[in-house]
Design goal:
Layout (H helix, E strand, L loop, with lengths): L1 E4 L4 H12 L4 E5 L5 H9 L3 E4 L5 H8 L4 E4 L14 H18 L4 E5 L10 H15 L3 E7 L3 H4 L6 E2 L4 E5 L11 H11 L8 E5 L7 H12 L4 E5 L1 H10 L3 H15 L6 H7 L6 H8 L3
Parallel strand pairs: 1-2, 1-4, 2-3, 4-5, 5-6, 6-9, 8-10
Antiparallel strand pairs: 7-8
């Protein structure tokens, strides 16, 4: 039995989908306030749904009983962020509580999703994840820490100013530093593979796509795929740094930090990783073709 924490989120739900498609027994931890449609989708896939919250240690103890491995992708950002459900309470203290509950229940393996260590700026979400990484490594549990680069589903979407349908793109910084864009579907594949691949045990895995491309190169790929030029607007690094410095809210500060790190780039050489794990990864060109319906 595998426990997935964060199972109604983008990445967590995809992990559940892949596991249940393989006939694996999956237990999904969901909150009382989770979207009923998303919860029903988990049940429809064959997952066992249990109610709980990473802020409630008793619910974590119950969810971890009889589980061989835990995969956690839960986060307060961006959809659950609110008073009482913050980065400190969920992404730091909640994840630490989950690790402790898993250890107490005799769970053998915990797979945790953080950020690529190439994401250099200091901001609340990344700093919380680094604390959790250290706690997990020291816990004595067998661990896998997934360290993905920028998700295409998020960073090549209108949510952050990349609007392919309107042929408009906000570019953070000069847009010339390469990034190893990755699909969350592929991160889910690595999460699932980590449960059985010995190379994932007590390991931190830097994850990116098959090639590192600058944001301006990505725009060119979309222009060629869509057959029309993009309107590009640059957000200067100085503005991002000022936003990071001035922000008082943890989520706003974290978004500014992620955008500033995007401006600096995050290239990951995946050749050895792909040989070891044999996991297919999506290129930006393939993703653009799908996003544009080509």
């Amino acid at each position: 039995m595998y426990l997935v924490v964060g199972s109604t989120g983008l990445l967590g739900s995809e992990i559940c989908r892949q596991l249940t498609a393989r006939g694996q027994e999956v237990r999904s931890l969901v909150r009382q306030t989770s979207d009923p449609a998303k919860v029903q989708a988990l049940r429809d896939r064959g997952a066992e749904v249990v109610m709980g919250d990473v802020r409630d240690r008793a619910s974590l103890d119950a969810a971890c009983r009889g589980v061989s491995a835990v995969i956690t992708t839960t986060s307060a950002m961006p959809f659950s962020y609110q008073p009482g459900n913050t980065i400190a309470e969920v992404d730091r203290d909640g994840q630490i509580g989950l690790i402790d509950a898993a250890k107490a229940a005799g769970v053998r393996h915990l797979v945790y999703t953080a950020f690529s260590h190439g994401i250099g700026a200091s901001f609340p979400l990344k700093d919380a994840k680094r604390v959790v990484e250290e706690h997990l490594v020291a816990s004595g549990l067998t661990y896998t820490i997934l360290l993905p680069s920028y998700f295409m589903e998020v960073w090549l979407s209108p949510a952050v100013g990349f609007d392919a349908a309107a042929a408009k793109a906000a570019i953070y910084g000069e847009g010339r530093s390469p990034i190893s864009w990755i699909s969350l579907v592929d991160v889910a594949r690595f999460a699932v593979a980590s449960l059985t691949n010995p190379a994932a045990r007590d390991a931190a895995l830097e994850l990116g796509g098959p090639e590192a491309l600058s944001p301006l190169e990505v725009v060119k790929i979309y222009e060629e795929a869509g057959g029309r030029p993009f309107e590009v607007q640059h957000v200067p690094e100085s503005a991002l740094a000022a936003q990071l410095e001035a922000a008082t809210d943890g989520m706003q500060k974290s978004f500014a930090g992620l955008m500033l790190s995007y401006a600096h780039g995050n290239a990951i050489d995946m050749r050895e990783m792909l040989q070891v794990f044999q996991v297919p990864v999506t290129s930006v060109h393939e993703y653009a073709q799908r996003a544009l319906g080509r």
